[in-house]
Amino acid sequence: MQRGTFKLMKSVNKSLVLNKIRKDGPISRAQIAKESKLTPPTVSSFVKELLEEGLVKEKDLGKSNGGRKPTMLEINYHHFYIIGVDSGSSRVDVILSDLSGKIYERISSVFPKDMSKEQFLIILSTAVRDILSKVKQPEKVLGIGVAMHGVVQVETGTSLIAPSLGLENIPIKETLQNEFNLEVYVENDARAMALGESWFGEYGDQDSMMTVNIGNGVGSGLVVDGNLYHGAQDIAGEIGHMMIDIHGEVCECGNKGCLQTFISGSSIARRANKLGEEHYTSGKDVYEAVQNGNTSLKEVFEETGKLIGIGITNLIHVVNPKLIVLGGGVMNAEEMLLPAVHKTIAQHALTLEAKETKVVVSKLGKDAAMLGATALVLVEIFN
After folding, report:
1. Considering the entire predicted model, what is its pTM?
2. What is the pLDDT of residues 62-87, one digit of tens each?
3. Cβ neighbours of residue 217 under 8 Å, at least 6 residues apart?
4. 349 burial class (0-12, 13-18, 19+ CB within 10 angstroms)?
């Protein structure tokens, strides 16, 4: 779809009517008018435009209250597509989904070592082009969302610092928009994950929700009343670089004792190696060793759970969210980590209510950031 058309649609989609249909559909025109306090002709006018755009569809007739049965309205979730991109430390994953988060196509590309900015952008563009080639009606693609690790300047869609790739100032939004003539939104991967969990995690209405992504790095995202919180300089959520031991190990950011140096996958391997049994290169290796019967390594995960719990207790004291969702590769060891996380919070949080903060593991798993990338486009459509 041409970018101009998307912007026209966006101006229509800002209406109360569209979100009323999204949140409460199937719903009749009369119900929308009554509950939104808009006049019936105004509602009908908006609905007519939304039907023409294809974002809304009519379905079976509703129940009658004595007169003619009303025609019900709902979002036409399967009519349009969004491209979601998750760019990590070693690979990029791209999906094609509809507005409901249903995934139709997937493509992955592995990054070469010592990659340049130009090579990165070529790999990214190629993966998006390959996904687009699978769409029979490319005009139905509404936009591209990109979840990028590191520090992202959201307004310009620039990756300012991608520490795992050793790259800086990558013009992701500019490059993709120029090539594909689609609206592009770029966000930090942990914040994108938060948005994905908010839209697709099915946790019910949460006025404040935080996600913590624990893998090769550690990041978080905060969603308040459906909106991501970015902070003054777009670094809100960088809890992996919250220093908890000024005499600790040096982090990739240059500081000592960051939370990331205690709970990331590589830190789990490092602590396991100190036991002197075998050499492990990743947290996944340590987890697999436990699964294969090496129970002595369980203490490494229990200690990691305590350390995660300390980090989350700090978050609870600063932000006080209603729900915290944990994701990332490290949380594959949920059964060994989560009890220690809950216990630590119960021991150290300030109040009884804070001690009982709901902390769960992501339902979306490895797809959370990719679906969060698609949600970046959904936010623009619906909000």
Report:
1. 0.85
2. 566 656 778 899 999 999 999 999 99
3. 89, 149, 163, 164, 240, 252, 260, 264
4. buried
